[in-house]
Amino acid sequence: MSAMTIGPAVRGGRAARTRPSTTGRATTHLAAGRTAAGRTAAGRAAAGRTAVEGPLRLTARGRAVVWGLAVALATGVGGAAVSAQADGPRAATEVQRVVVAPGQTLWGLAAEVAAPGEDVRDVVLRLMELNELPAGGLQAGQTVVVPVG
After folding, report:
1. Mean of the per-residue pLDDT values for the chain?
2. Which of 41, 68, 86, 108 sits a CA distance of 20 to 30 A from 74?
3. Which of 144, 75, 74 lies closest to 110, judged by CA?
4. CA quadruple 120, 126, 131, 136: dihedral positive or negative?
5. Residue 96: strand pairing partners
6. Pairing mode, if any, of strands 95-99 and 143-147?
7. What is the pTM of this model?
8. Torsions phi, psi of 36, nearest 5?
């Protein structure tokens, strides 16, 4: 076995002192006159426990923090719910099927279909989207859909 030395307990900047009690055992008294374990037997028994019993108590600052976190969470969830919109049914695009002739390009098809003043690059992108084309290359005999009008 090993021996351990414990120095005087310091509480509130004052050292505790030991006085003999009337029961024959030494009792540690703080400089303020209280025993280290408490005034009652129940208090001395509770001092040996490590778990805290009773309801959770929050300070005013703690309650403010909890309320602030709750408001932030509600705002975030509410904001996400407002911005989450399902796409409604889109108006159907009227299309026609075109068989690609030898030497015909997607740019040429887009130029034929584009409305006056419409950018051909936008029409090329729309044709690629409609036909699910990974690139702009076409092959002779391939069938593509182009918007009408």
Report:
1. 75
2. 86
3. 144
4. positive
5. 146
6. antiparallel
7. 0.40
8. -65, -35
pLDDT of 133: 87
Residue-wise pLDDT tens digits, 54-97: 788 889 999 999 999 999 999 988 888 777 777 777 778 788 99
The two tokens of residue 42 are: 């129940």
Q: 74-78, 133-137, 142-146: which range is least confident on average? A: 133-137
| SS3 assignment for the chain | CCCCCCCCCEECCEECEEEECCCCCEEEECCCCCECCCCCHHHHHHHCCCCCCCCCCCCHHHHHHHHHHHHHHHHHHHHHHHHCCCCCCCCCCCEEEEECCCCCCHHHHHHHHCCCCCCHHHHHHHHHHHHCCCCCCCCCCCEEEEECC
Number of residues that this document lists for the chain: 149
Compute the distance between CA of residue 26 and CA of residue 8 in angstroms, rounded to an integer: 14
Nearest to 95 by CA among 148, 132, 133, 56: 148
d(CA 131, CA 123): 12
